[in-house]
Write a structure and sequence with these properties.
- It contains five helices and no strands.
- It is mainly α.
- The chain has one domain.
- α2 packs across α3.
- The two termini are 16 Å apart.
- It holds the Pfam family PspC.
- Keywords: Cell membrane, Membrane, Transmembrane, Transmembrane helix.
- It is found in: Cell membrane.
- This is PspC domain-containing protein.
- It is a single-pass membrane protein.
C-alpha cells in the first residue's frame, strides 16, 4: 500500500491539507489536473447521474491517496 501511495505522490496526486470538503479527493484531483476544485466537484456530481462505479472509485481514492501531511512527514 505504501508503494501505491508513494507512486501517487510522485505523480502529484495527494489530498491537500486545506481546501477539501469531504475527504479532499476532488481537491487533490483538481490540483493534479490543473483545474479548480469547484469544477472537479461539479464533474463528479454530474458523473453520478451516469450509471457506474463513481462512488466506489471515490471511496478507493479516499483510502489510497496519501494526505499532504503524510507525504510531507515521510518525505
Amino acid at each position: 500500500m505504501n508503494t501505491v501511495r508513494r507512486n501517487m505522490y510522485e505523480q502529484g496526486l495527494f489530498r491537500p491539507r486545506h481546501g477539501g470538503i469531504l475527504a479532499g479527493v476532488c481537491a487533490g484531483l483538481a490540483r493534479r489536473f490543473g483545474i479548480s476544485p469547484t469544477m472537479m466537484r461539479i464533474i463528479f456530481l454530474v458523473s453520478i447521474i451516469i450509471p457506474g462505479s463513481q462512488v466506489l472509485i471515490y471511496l478507493l481514492l479516499w483510502l489510497l491517496m496519501p494526505k499532504e501531511e503524510t507525504v510531507i512527514h515521510q518525505g
